[in-house]
Amino acid sequence: MAKVCIICHKETKKGIPIKEDFVIKSIRKVKRALRISTGNTLIVCEEHVGDAKKRREKFEKSLLTYVGLGAVIGIVLILISIFQSKSLSNILVSFGLLVLLVLLMAAFSLYQYFPSLMKKPEKKVKRSRKVKR
Ligand SMILES: [Zn+2]
Questions:
Q1: Domain span at residue 19?
Q2: Tens digit of pLDDT for each residue in 8-33?
């Protein structure tokens, strides 16, 4: 299996493997089903580690922002239906909308999706513990 950098798409031996999260796994399943899977191991070459970390951070921020936004809108909807003293079923519908909104917003942020990196196994740096006062 070749190791390919997901940023520059070059084959390389030195690099950090990416974490196989559910997004990567589902992409893989789709590719296998379509028979376009290359079977390559996805890594980030040493040159692009900094870049990869930045992109991951950006994705995490956008995920939080979108999900937070969806949650706020959904909670407002629930509050409105409570204050309008509608029936319980209306409140439940609002709650369903909240869940949908959060999921939708999470899906939006996937446009910026970038996998996280595995921690370097060979580099075992002892973390200096903070001295408690
Ligand atoms: Zn690269």
A1: 3-112
A2: 999 988 899 999 898 999 988 999 99
